[in-house]
Design goal:
13 strands, single chain, globular, 912 residues, two-stranded antiparallel sheet, binds 2-phosphoglycolic acid, phosphoenolpyruvate carboxylase activity, Pyrv/PenolPyrv_kinase-like_dom, 63% helix, alpha/beta, pyruvate, eight-stranded parallel barrel, PEP_COase
């Protein structure tokens, strides 16, 4: 971007922001709240009101700032694309295809490889979305008004009307409490996910398809890549909401069953709506265009099979055969839509059993139009519906089921106790466990007699698996994802799942023994588990039940999914050890996959902040080890990230295109096989180890947990009702048991952002002082080796959000000076070291070298400082001796504290 572009962008942002702040002030004046109008942050200066309502006013102001920034980013991308074409923006199809066109790979090969690209975001309800669903809805509408206002055709009266609508929307927002008073139910969280799946993503798929076709032409690639191409890169969606049972007792079998039902119903209603629109569009008269014989034949055939509903479908538009065909397809959907609502049906009569049958009919419809010279209509009208069926099927998104290995152990113990009276499985050594499991897995006979009640954990797992088995029997495997085992520590943790699946009827018998009906997927998430992952995987992939399962699921080309967790490894060992550990683990597992002839499909469990694995998408993909993406990417999109990236269709298209084009860019050609590795890898091993030691040393300091609990608002966060699941996996109040989200959330509220940078400074400084030439080589490699650049730039972004003065103010909440001083001194020293060494790498002050990160933060600095002061004062009051006895007062203070948490999160643009 030129400096002129940058200035233009800044000016537009300022204009939009001024406009929004004027609207907000107008709203406050209208409500007789002029004090609030005058305390709004303006041009960087802040003047808090005495009135505690200013916290909420600033929270709204921060949301408006975020919205204005988002809108400017979208408009800037569009302006750049208008002047420079699709190659303007890095990471998107324009650039990727341009590069491929110069690579010398034949065009047909590129087109064929593009058809294999697959990306699967997995939407989860990880409790990081601080905004209530009602607030999100208002913000979405407000954003649309902001965009509407940009149109230059409005008359002055119309512009006034838009302004009035904006002010009214702000009032709505102001009168809606931001604080969740009750925890949401899992099914409320599901509703948010379904909103995106049904209302946003279906609009986005055609945008993505059009853009790849345009980019293909713009890159000068010949041959056909058009909307009529049979295979375009494919996005599909999965979800964990209603299936993620890890530390979440409220995800019961009934919830899972209801989730599967809701997903199916909404998928069918989506298609019902799309077919209704398609029918009204294909009003092509047979007198003007004669249908080809295949269409007429298919109509006759369906008429004979469909009985009364089919006749009705034909009767309605006798002159319009294409429309009749669409009416027929709609009548065959397995859902009944009446004035009273919608009801799922079985596949009785001639209703479709599987989505593939509808796809076949849509292909016939498309081809019949093409055959009669109406290819434009086929591409504009039929293809988007066909793509919807390909992407969403009859299931909208597939549902993974996740459970913790310790829970599975307890379940198996109960089964063993009920069947044989044996006990102690969870205390056996790994070899004893495997020996037992191998013996058991050789047989297909379940443990229990029908009707036995083995105990809570066993019943919980089995009842969930039975729901999955029933779904498989009725609808096949579309809609079902994997059985994911969190905290996989040994191969026995995976084999246990086979036994549980056998018990619940989720297994098929073959001549050699049984296979599991769903893939069992390890989740390696701590640093030690990542280190052991390749050995575990090798043993797992060689196991006969796994081999049979992969053959059952994938036939001749076995694929094993492996999930890797970014948050727990980071909480364990800090950013460098985590990201490098993940890199090394992928390399080692890829090697295993090659050795045993199984393709690996990595599933990246990333959160929305750097400390939980986030980072710029394109750099993240380019920083993966060679061969890791393999044209097939699965990753979580969690909590607040979903609304930030996917709430408006244009932004959603941008983020999905980054994923698709980025995956294609690192997968074709030539990057599909692991290479020899970068020469600095051994140095990185050392640095990661050193960084981890430093981080662990801090956590092991005497009194560290007390420091953490007193210097951050962790207690407020634990009392908040963000998300349906508890903050801890079990009831133990240890650091190990605390989940990564509240850990990161509380450090960011107190502006430490500790796990995003701590440790890396010591490691790099040591290298700098001990081996200057190697350090110089390291610095040069940050430019050329993306894996390294990714780690360094993420640490630099995290430390930009940390603020030593604010850290110190929060540390003032720690009662014991003897504990506070040394810990704070250690953190400050590491902070200074990290900044110093990063400045060395970036060649100057970070604020100057990285304006894209620092300028938006600077816009918020003063207002945030005031909010932090307020939060600290409230924490002090709330934690006072005896306060808990005064229930009313304590609740009121907690509510005020939660408001500060929301306002600070809105300012930082992140929770945890
Ligand atoms: P989990 O996720 O706690 O669900 O394992 C970790 C995270 O995303 O922070």
């Amino acid at each position: 971007m030129t400096s002129q572009d940058a200035t233009g962008k800044e000016d537009k942002l300022q204009r939009d922001l001024d406009y929004l702040m004027e609207c907000l002030a107008e709203m406050f004046h209208g409500l007789g709240e002029s004090r609030l109008a005058s305390c709004l942050p303006k041009n960087g200066s802040v003047a808090p009101s005495e009135d505690c309502k200013f916290v909420r006013a600033w929270s709204v102001a921060f949301q408006l700032l975020g919205m204005a920034e988002e809108n400017v980013a979208v408009q800037t991308r569009r302006a750049l694309e208008t002047s420079q074409g699709l190659v303007a923006e890095p990471g998107l199809w324009g650039r990727v295809l341009e590069k491929l066109s110069r690579s010398g790979v034949p065009e047909e090969e590129i087109a064929a490889m593009l058809g294999e690209i697959r990306v699967e975001p997995v939407l989860t309800a990880h409790p990081t979305e601080a905004k209530r669903a009602s607030v999100l809805r208002h913000l979405r509408e407000l954003y649309l008004l902001l965009v509407k206002r940009e149109n230059t055709v409005w008359t002055p009266a119309e512009r006034d009307e838009i302004r009035e609508e904006i002010v009214a929307m702000l009032e709505r927002l102001w009168r809606t409490s931001e604080v969740h008073l009750e925890k949401p139910k899992v099914l409320n969280e599901l509703a948010t996910i379904i909103y995106h799946l049904r209302d946003i993503f279906p609009q986005v798929i055609p945008i993505l398809d059009r853009r790849i076709c345009l980019a293909w032409r713009e890159a000068g690639l010949k041959g056909e890549l058009s909307l009529l191409t049979e295979r375009l890169p494919c996005v599909s969606f999965s979800t964990w909401v209603g299936g993620d049972r890890d530390g979440h007792p409220l995800v019961t079998a009934e919830v899972t069953e209801a989730t599967l039902r809701e997903l199916r119903l909404n998928a069918l209603m989506l298609l019902h709506g799309q077919l209704t629109t398609l029918g009204s569009r294909l009003s092509i008269s047979r007198r003007l265009l004669a249908p080809p014989p295949e269409l007429a034949r298919r109509l006759d055939e369906l008429k004979a099979r469909t009985g009364a509903p089919g006749e009705e479908a034909l009767r309605r538009n006798p002159e319009e055969p294409w429309r009749q065909m669409v009416n027929m397809m709609r009548a065959r959907l397995p859902v009944e839509v009446t004035g009273d609502g919608e009801v799922l049906c079985g596949a009785e009569g001639s209703r479709y059993c599987r989505a593939a049958e509808l796809e076949d009919d849509l292909r016939l419809l498309r081809d019949s139009l093409v055959a009669r010279g109406a290819a434009r209509l086929a591409a504009a009208d039929v293809v988007p519906v066909l793509r919807s069926v390909e992407v969403f099927g009859f299931h909208l998104a597939s549902l993974d089921v996740r459970q913790n290995s310790a829970f599975h152990d307890a379940a198996l113990e109960q089964l063993m106790a009920a069947a044989t009276g044996e006990s102690g499985f969870s205390r056996w050594s790994e070899e004893e466990r495997i020996a037992f499991l191998d013996r058991e897995l050789a047989s297909s006979r379940p443990f229990l007699l029908p009707g036995t009640k083995p105990g809570r954990e066993a019943e919980s797992v089995l009842s969930c698996y039975r729901v999955l088995a029933a779904h498989l029997a009725s609808f096949g495997d579309a809609g079902l994802g994997s059985l994911i085992v969190s905290m996989t520590r040994g191969v026995s943790d995976l084999l246990v799942v086979y036994l549980l699946a056998r018990e619940a009827g989720l297994a098929v018998r073959g001549t050699q023994g049984f296979a599991c009906r769903l893939p069992v997927v390890p989740l390696f998430e701590t640093i030690d588990d990542l280190e052991g992952s390749a050995a575990i995987l090798e043993r797992f992939l060689s196991h006969p039940v796994t081999r049979r399962t992969l053959a059952e699921l994938n036939g001749e080309s076995p694929v094993q999914q492996v999930m890797i967790g970014y948050s727990d490894s980071n909480k364990d060992g800090g950013i460098m050890a985590s990201l490098w550990g993940l890199y090394r683990a992928q390399e080692a597992m890829l090697e295993v996959g090659r050795r045993v002839g199984v393709r690996l499909r990595f599933f990246h469990g990333r959160g929305g902040t750097i400390s939980r694995g986030a980072g710029p998408t394109s750099r993240f993909l380019r920083g993966l080890p060679e061969g890791s993406a393999g044209g097939d990417l699965r990753l979580t999109e969690q909590g607040e990230v979903i609304s930030q990236k996917y709430s408006n269709p244009l932004n959603a298209a941008y983020h999905l295109e980054l994923l698709l084009a980025g995956t294609a860019g690192v997968s074709i050609p030539g990057r599909s096989e692991p290479g020899t590795g970068h020469p600095l890898e051994p140095v990185m091993d050392r640095l990661a180890h050193r960084s981890r030691c430093e981080y662990e040393k801090l956590l092991a300091r005497e009194g560290f947990v007390t420091f953490f609990r007193q210097a951050t608002p962790i207690d407020v966060i634990e009392s908040s009702s963000i998300g349906s699941r508890p903050a801890r996996r079990t009831d133990h109040a240890t650091l190990a048991d605390l989940r990564a989200i509240p850990w990161v959330f509380s450090w960011s509220q107190a502006r430490y952002f500790l796990s995003g940078w701590y440790g890396i400074g010591s490691a790099l400084e040591e290298l700098m002082l001990e081996d200057a030439p190697l350090f110089a080589q390291f610095v040069r490699s940050t430019q050329s080796w993306t894996a390294l650049h990714y780690i360094i730039s993420n640490a630099a972004t995290s430390i930009a959000s940390a603020d030593p003065a604010i850290m110190e103010a929060y540390a003032g909440l720690v009662h014991e000076e003897g504990l506070r001083k040394p810990i704070l001194a250690a953190i400050h020293a590491e902070y200074r070291r990290t900044v110093r060494v990063l400045e060395e790498i970036y060649g100057g002050p970070l604020a100057e070298r990285r304006p894209a990160v620092h300028v938006p933060l600077a816009r918020r600095t003063d207002a945030l400082r005031v909010l932090h002061e307020r939060q600290i004062a409230l924490l002090r009051q709330w934690r006072q001796e005896g306060m808990r006895q005064n229930r009313g007062m304590s609740e009121e203070l907690l509510f005020r504290l939660l408001e500060t948490v929301h306002a600070i999160a809105a300012g930082l643009g992140t929770t945890g």
